[in-house]
Amino acid sequence: MFSGPTSRRMTLVGVLLIFTLAVAACGSPATAPTAADEGAAGEAPAAAPEATAAPAEEATPADEDASNQVVQESSASQGRVAAGETVTSDEDVTTPRDPALQGGEYRSVATSDFVNFHPYLTTDTASSAARAQVYANGLLRLDENTLEYIPNMAESYSISDDGLTFTFKLRQGMQWSDGEPITAQDFKWTFDQANNPDNGFPYRSQLDFITSYEALDDYTLEVKIDEVYAPALGQISGLITPLPKHVWENLDWSDPETNPEINNPTVTSGPYTLQEWKREQYAIYAASDSYWYKGRPNISQQIDEIVPDQDIAYQKLKSGESDTGTITPENLEEARNLDNVTVYEWWPAAASWSYIGLNMRDGYPTSDVHVRRGINYAIDKELLTDEVMLGQAKRLCSVFPETSWAYTPDVECYPYDPAKAIAEFEMAGYTYDEASNTMLTPAGEPLTLRLFFGPNTSQTRELIAVTVQDFLRQIGVDAEIQALEWASFLEALDAAEPEWDMFVGGWRATIEPHIMYTIWAEDSIPDLNSVAYINKDVEALFDEAGKSYDTEFRKEKYAEIQQIISDEAPYVFLFFQKAWSGQNNRVQGIQPTPLGIGWNFEDWYIRADAGQ
Amino acid sequence: MTRYIIRRGLQSIVLVFITTLIAFSIYQIAPGGPLQFLDDDPTSSSVDKVRLERLYGLDRAVPIQYAAWLTGEDWMPQTEAWRSGQCLNNPAKCSRGIVRLDFGRSFSFKGESVIGLIAERIPATFTLGFASLVLSMAVGIPLGIIAAYTRGRWPDNTIRAVTVLINTVPDWWLGLLLLIILGGYLGVVPLGGMYTIGDGSIPDRLHHLALPAVIGATGGWIGISRILRFEILDVLSLDYVRTARAKGLSRWGVVTRHVLRNALMPFVTGLGGIFLIFLSGSLLLELVFSWPGMGRLFITAVNARDYPLMMALFVISSFLGIMGLLFVDILYSFVDPRVRYGRRA
Q1: Does the N-terminal peptide bond of residue A526 adopt cis geometry, omega within 30 degrees of 0?
Q2: Which pLDDT tens digit goes with each residue over A108-127?
Q3: Looking at the DSSP assignment, which residues form a beta bridge with residue A210?
Q4: ipTM score
C-alpha cells in the first residue's frame, strides 16, 4: 500500500542513520540535526546503506523518577529549539506493522460523548479524542521520552537565523482516505478558515502570533511570526489539523446541518475511519489502510461506548465487557489486584495540580505577605496529600510541577511548622492567644477567613477544604467553608469585590511553561488571575523567557519566577497528581511515558490467545 | 365540549408563552453562561469571548434576544444591536423563531438543530417511560386492591410498609446498587445501555429494558396503591355496594363491576400527571443506566448553559403538560358520564 513513496523514504532513512546513532548515544533519539533540507547551513552526507528503523526510542524508563531525570538531562544537554537550524526525520514511517499482531477489537467506555469531529468548533476533550481517531495532526510531535518536538507529518523543519520564519517540508505519500495526497494546500486552506473571525473558532486568538502562513509548493509550508516567541514551534506544528480542501471547500465550514463531514467524516487522514456513531450511545471505528504512519494500526476495530456513570464504567472493566474503564482513586487499590486488568501509572508531563488561592487585594487579611506565609506554614501538605489523594499525588512546591523542565528545586517549600506559622502572623501584627487557641487580629478580634470551593465528583476539593480548615484551627484561625455550584463558584471568584479570602483551585500544567504566564499577569485579573497577583518583575521575566529559544536562559528565568512567587506566596501549593489507566490484559503493547499511554495506540495489539 | 377544549387550548398556549418569558429571564440571570468555559482557560483570551458573544448574538439586550428567539431575527433591522453576528454574515443562519417552529441551533452541540437533537432522544425516553408506567400500574393497581380488601391486616400493612420503604430510597441509588449486583457480580442483566451494540433484536432490547423499567416503576407503586386503596375503601362503604352484595352478587363481581369502575375515576385524573413525569425522562436513572434519553440531554444543556436547547426542552415539556391535562379532561368525561363541559347555564 505504500509502494510508491516507500523507496524514497528508505533512502532518506539511510541518509540519516549515521546521525541517529551518534545522537542516540547522547540519550536523545529522534531529533537528529541534519542538513538534508534546503536552506540549511551544513551539507548533505553521502548515502548510507539500507537501514532499518532506529531502535533508540525503545528506552522506556524504569520508573517515574528516572523518567523525570531523563527529561531534565536531555533538555539541559540539548537545546530544544534553535534559530538557524534544520531538523530532519530519520524515522521509518512506511514499513507496515507486523501482520501477526493485527486484528481484534478494542472496546472502551467514556463518561461523556463528543460533540462532533470538527477541529475548529469543539472545545471538549471527548471531541479532541474522537477527532484524533479520524484526522491526523501535528507537523511535529513530542517525543514521548525527551518531550522534544520531532518531525511528524513534516519530515523536516528549519528555523531561520532570526528565529522568525519556520519552514516545514511535508512527507510525500501521505494520503486522504479517498486516495488524494495530503498537501501543504490542505494545511494552508485549513489555517485560513480557522483564522477567519466569522468562522467561530473559539481559540482563534491562539493564531494571532502568526503573521503569515503560506504553502510555497505542495509540500512546503512557510510560517512567519513577527517576534521571537518560545512556544511558536510547538503551536505552529499543532494548531492546524488539516482538513481535505478538495472536499470541504464546497461545503459550509461550520454548519452541521448542511456539511455532513462535520458529524460523519468520510474523507479522513487518521488511523481509523468512522463506521457508525449513535449519539450518547456508541461510536465504532475501523482501522484505516491509508494512515500515513506505518499504515494500518494493529487493532482492527474500536467500539467506544458512552457510560455516564463512572461506577458502571468500572464494572464494565471488571467484568471484561470493556477493555478499559474509569478507575476512581477509591477503586484504584482494588483495580491493581484484578486478575484480568493491568493498571498503568505515570507522572504526566502535563500534570494537574491543586492549590489554595489567597486573596491579594487590599483590605483582605491575606493581602499581608506574612499572613500568607503563616497559612503556608500552618498546613501540613504532605499529610494533606496523603489523606486526600491516597498517595496518588506528590507534594508541589512551585508554580511548575516537578515533571516540568522549567521546575527548580531551589524554592522555599514551606514545611509544616505551626510555631513558624504563628510567628509569621505575629509579624503581621496578630496576637496568638494560647489559652483559648485564638488568633487575634490587630484590632483584637478573632480571625476568621472565608474559604470557597466548587464541589467536584470525586470530592477532592471538599476534602482539601475541610483538611485546611482543620490545620488552620490548630493555630487559632477560623476558616468558614462555603461550597458553591460550579458556575456560581466561578462567578464568586471573579467578583469585583470578592467575598472570599481563600479558595480551592486547580490547574493543569502545560508542557510549555510560557502558557502559565497568563495566570500571573495583571491583565488576567479577575478571570485567570483570581487572586489578583501583581508583580511587574515576574511579568518582565515571563516576557524575557517567552522571547527566547535558549532553553538554558529560559530555565534561569523560570527559576527566578518560581523563587519570587514562592516568596510572595499568592497560593498555597498543595500537590500534583499521578495519572493511571486500567486496561484489560488482552491488550498489549502499552508503554506509559510522561505523555501517558495513548501516544502509541496504533501499536497496541490484542493478544492472539485472548477470546473476543 | 369541543368549544371547551379549544378555549382551554388557547388559554394554555398563552400560558406557555408567559412561562417561556419567565424561563428565558431566569436562564439569563442564572450564574454562568454558554461561554464561561473560556474564562478559566489560560489558552484563550478575552478577545475570543467578545467575538463569540457577537457571533451568537449574546451581546444583545435580553429582551431583544427573547424577541429573536420567539419571532426570529430575519425580519429585524440589519444592525448589530438586533441581529446576531451569524445572521448578519449569512442570512441562511438567521433564526426564524419559535412561532415559526424554528427552535434554533444548539450552542453546546455547535450549530446542530435543537429539534433534531431532541427528536433523537424521544424514542429512548418514551420507551423507558411507557414501560415504567405500564409496570407501575401492573403492580400498583393489584397492590391497591389487595390492600383495600385486607385493610388493617398483614397484607395491607406489609404493602404499605414496603412501598414506603422503597419510596424512601432514591431510585437512582437503588438502580445503581441493583445494576452492580445483578449486572456486575451475577451477570444476569446487562450493565446499562439500550441494546447490545451490533444486536438490537427485540429480546435483547427487552433484556436491557427490564431493570431500568422496574426501577422507574417503583416510584409509581406507592402513589397508585395508596390512591386506589383510599378510593376503594371510600366506595366500599357506600350503600349501593352493600345493596349489590345483598342482592347476591359475588364479591369479585362487586369489585369489578361496581367498585373498581367508580374508584378508578379520581385515579384517572392523577394519571395525566403521572404519565407526564414518566415521559419527561428521569435524569438520574438515565445516567445510571446509560440510557440515551432526554434527561441526559437536559443535563448537558443546563451544564453548558445552552439557552436554545434549554428553552426548547422547556417549551416541549410545558406543551406535554398541557396535552396531558387535556387528555385527562377528555378521559374523565368518558369514565364519568355525568361530567360534561361547557354547559354552564
Answers
A1: yes
A2: 999 899 999 999 999 888 99
A3: A225
A4: 0.87
- For residue A542, list chain B residues with Cβ-Cβ distance below 8 A: none
Taking CB atoms and an 8 Å limit, are A279 and B120 in contact across chains? yes
Could you tell me if A192 and A253 are in contact, meaning their C-beta atoms sit under 8 angstroms apart? Answer: no
Query: What does the alpha-carbon distance between residue A340 and residue A316 come to, in Å, rounded to a whole number?
Result: 12
Instruction: Tell me how far apart the alpha carbons of residues A360 and B174 are, in angstroms, rounded to a whole number.
Output: 47
In whole angstroms, what separates CA A350 from the centre of its chain? 4
Amino acid at B338: R
What are the DSSP E strand ranges found in A240-290? Answer: 272-278, 282-287
A281 touches chain B (CB under 8 A): yes
Better pLDDT: A465 or B11: A465
State pLDDT tens for residues B99-116: 898 999 999 999 899 999
In order, the DSSP letters of B166-201 are: HHHS-HHHHHHHHIIIIIIIS-SS-SSSSS-TT---
Per the CB < 8 Å rule, is B44 touching A203? yes
- Average pLDDT in the B1-18 region? 77
Instruction: Note whether A123 contacts B37, CB cutoff 8 Å.
Output: yes
A205 — contact with chain B (CB < 8 Å)?
yes
Q: What is the pLDDT of residues B223-235, one digit of tens each?
A: 888 888 988 888 8
Pick from A568, A247, A257: which is nearest to B111 by CA? Answer: A257
Question: Residue B333: its pLDDT value, please?
Answer: 66
CB-based contacts of A582: which residues, under 8 Å, 6+ apart?
A: A317, A324, A325, A327, A335, A338, A341, A342, A343, A344
In contact, B210 and B127? CB cutoff 8 Å: no
pLDDT bracket for residue A408 (50, 70, 90) = very high
Averaged over A347-372, what is the pLDDT? Answer: 94
| Residue B122 touches partner A, C-beta closer than 8 Å | no
Nearest CA in chain B to A506: B40
Q: Are strands A220-225 and A165-170 parallel, antiparallel or unpaired?
A: antiparallel
What is the C-alpha separation between B141 and B135, in angstroms, rounded? 10
Nearest to A308 among B108, B184, B290 (CB): B290
Q: CB of A330 within 8 Å of any CB in chain B?
A: no
| Residue A286 forms contact with B (CB below 8 Å) | no
A485/B48 touch (CB, cutoff 8 Å), yes or no: no
Chain B segment 131-150 residues within 8 A of A by beta carbon are none
Contact, A585 vs A344, CB < 8 A? no
Distance from CA of A213 to the nearest CA of B (A): 20
Residue B265 in grid coordinates: 375515576
* Out of B48, B89, B288, closest to residue A204 by CB: B48
- The CA distances from residue A207 to A262, A542, B19, in Å, are 22, 20, 43
pLDDT (mean) for B156-178: 91
Cβ pair B191:A510 closer than 8 A: no
Residue B75, CA distances (Å) to A445, B63, B67 in order: 63, 16, 11
